[in-house]
Amino acid sequence: xxxxxxxxxxxxxxxxxxxxxxxxxxxxxxxxxxxxxxxxxxxxxxxxxxxxxxxxxxxxxxxxxxxxxxxx
Length: 72
Prior knowledge:
The chain is an all-alpha fold. The chain has one domain (2-63). It has five helices and no strands. The protein has helices at residues 9-27, 33-42, 44-52, 56-60, 68-71. Helix 1 packs antiparallel against helix 2 (33-42) and helix 1 packs antiparallel against helix 3.
């Protein structure tokens, strides 16, 4: 599984925090209407990718932010 990870530690932290903020805004009723629904749905994407450490968009673009694994 380590070989698949393409996100650095900082990248993962930012994604998890962003996902949690979006979910709190949407599910907490702070943002309502269309934007609230958007935040409820989109909030899971950065949260999930941050937790597993794999970004499908990075794979498609052949990118990675964790340079440490390239040396191993």
